[in-house]
Amino acid sequence: MINAVKRRWQWFFSAIAATSILSSLRNSMSLARSSFYDNNDPESSPPSCFRAREDSVPRLMRGTSYLNPPVINLGMPKIGSTSLQHFFACAGYGASHWWCGRGTHCARCIQDSVKHGLPPFQKCKGSGPMYSQIDGSGMGGKMYFPQVELLDEIVRAYPNATFFLTFRSMDGWYRSISKWKPNKINKNMKSLKDRMAGANITGLPVGSDGLESFADFFCNHVRRVREVVPRDRLVEIDIEDQRRTGPLLSDIFDIDEECWIQTNANPKLLRNNATGENGDRLSETLRTNVISDTVRGKAKIRGKGGVMRKNPTYDASIEASLLQKKKKTAQKLRSG
Questions:
Q1: Domain 65-312 is in which class?
Q2: What's the pTM?
Q3: Which of 56, 88, 184, 219 could be disulfide-bonded to 236 (CB atoms 3.0-4.6 Å)?
Q4: Gene3D superfamilies this protein is in (predicted)?
């Protein structure tokens, strides 16, 4: 009887010890996971390649001196490219979106430049120096993604450039590219998702479908960009974090915070998801703030503290050339 009681107590204490060991193991595994997963994501979320890194730009480098052209967005379409163009154009900088000059897609002139052994943006005339979306119709007519296919060439040619990497929730991005078509005239054109899936983009096999496939493609692209681009040249922003993104960009580039507005949103999704003051503001933006794909810069910029001249290191040669042509045209008209 006594031996039986002893065995029961031994079993009881052994069970407690085993439970303690298992608990310690779970805690260790949790700590290990916390360095790999972003705690801001849901419990089942993928690694932090789906979220912008905090303070991607060191605070000591923030200010007007940080804007070193060209400014190139390496992110994916439908993740804030129009908003980026609006931000810099609003401030007075030349900004291109999808089109790089009249009748030329950025993707095509970049591809053509590299093909001829030139710096990637050499043949992109009358555009920049801010390139908010560089993917588009390539030389073969299919969608082409220079930020994927020519990432090394771009960073090597412009080592001191300012690069962007934009983020949003993957389910939101996938819904957006699944429903997005250029306009009502091209209503029979395939969705952006299907066009991407048929473009034979490196990392996105032809025929890819489903959120998981596109999320893997996005994640791998983010990891590669972070490996190739120095951290102090890479600005990461979450376009859905309206409270933080505007002040962050204003702080980094010394541009009026009011220039940051999320634009070019899917109108149907916007109506369904927008609420309160922010939602009203976005809806108003869709109605009134439609801007050209190529915006010429100005001599002064809209800074945090008011209107001011551009940084002396800013290369405005493209804008100066355009201004000179405009003056010559005006002189001819007057003399004629």
A1: alpha beta
A2: 0.69
A3: 56
A4: P-loop containing nucleotide triphosphate hydrolases (3.40.50.300)
